[in-house]
Inverse folding.
């Protein structure tokens, strides 16, 4: 990997009226997330947030609850 490349990507994204359910591939493994937000840029914003959270070494549970709490 190039320096600074987090290795975070959306492995699966499901759009629904109640928001997004997605599986994010990370260097620590797959992470299942849910967000009540919808829209074209939300997945990119979630991936950015997950990258920062991983860089801060936050636990997966904190990442999941933080993404779920976004409004």
């Amino acid at each position: 990997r190039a320096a600074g490349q987090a290795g975070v990507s959306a492995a699966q994204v499901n759009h629904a009226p109640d928001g997004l359910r997605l599986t994010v591939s990370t260097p620590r493994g797959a992470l299942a997330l849910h967000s009540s937000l919808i829209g074209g840029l939300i997945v990119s914003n979630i991936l950015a947030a997950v990258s920062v959270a991983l860089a801060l070494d936050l636990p997966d549970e904190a990442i999941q609850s933080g993404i779920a709490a976004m409004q």
User: Anything to note?
Assistant: The CA atoms of residues 31 and 68 lie 13 Å apart.
